[in-house]
């Protein structure tokens, strides 16, 4: 059973945990998620397509990410999520933490912080080992291609993270 730490409005751990996807958070309580934007030196971004079996946003494009597990730092979580979803080890890559945004869903029990990271590294297709339970393909996309997916409404989190693509 996966547990997530519960944070207060100042992004400090409360010492309590919740079960994954339990959506029991009160207003003013949050869990922590991370996104790892990976770019190559040529300016292309690695994006993945969500599997069609996902309950939410199936078939949409996204960057790697997910929830931090209980006791896991934000940085540890982004390294793990990127490695699980793409097979890439970004621990030695240039870059790192860029910014945090907060999403509040009053009355739904699902409030969260999102720590956004950007890493730059040379990636070849043979370096990728996609997690087939999560991803249904990938592409190295230009900023313009990502913006086009966003305009179509098929790029997850774009409005919240678009500044990372500058």
Notes on the protein architecture:
The protein has 166 residues and is α+β, with helices and mostly antiparallel strands. It has three helices and nine strands, in the order ββββββαβββαα. It has helices at residues 74-86, 143-152, 158-161, and strands spanning 3-7, 13-19, 31-39, 45-50, 61-62, 64-67, 94-103, 112-120, 135-141. Strands 3, 4, 5, 6, 7, 8 and 9 form a seven-stranded mixed β-sheet that branches. The chain has a two-stranded antiparallel sheet with strand order 1-2. A hairpin with a 5-residue loop joins strand 3 (31-39) and strand 4 (45-50). The protein starts with a strand and ends in a 5-residue tail after the last helix. The mean pLDDT is 95.
Brief synopsis:
The chain is α+β, with helices and mostly antiparallel strands. The protein has helices at 74-86, 143-152, 158-161, and strands at 3-7, 13-19, 31-39, 45-50, 61-62, 64-67, 94-103, 112-120, 135-141. The model has no long low-confidence stretch (mean pLDDT 95).
């Amino acid at each position: 059973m996966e547990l997530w730490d519960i944070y207060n409005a100042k992004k400090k751990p409360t010492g309590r945990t919740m079960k994954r996807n339990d959506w029991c958070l009160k207003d003013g309580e949050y869990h922590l998620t991370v996104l790892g934007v990976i770019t190559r030196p040529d300016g292309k971004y690695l994006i993945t397509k969500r599997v069609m079996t996902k309950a939410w946003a199936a078939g949409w494009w996204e960057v790697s990410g997910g929830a931090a597990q209980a006791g896991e730092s934000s940085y540890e979580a982004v390294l793990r999520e990127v490695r699980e979803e793409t097979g890439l080890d970004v621990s030695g890559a240039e870059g790192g933490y860029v910014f945090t945004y907060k999403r509040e869903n009053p009355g739904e029990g699902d409030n969260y912080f999102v720590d956004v990271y950007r890493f730059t590294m040379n990636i070849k297709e043979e370096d990728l080992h996609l997690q087939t339970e999560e991803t249904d393909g990938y592409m190295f996309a230009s900023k313009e291609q990502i913006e086009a997916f966003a305009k179509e409404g098929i790029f997850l989190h774009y409005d919240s993270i678009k500044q990372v693509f500058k």
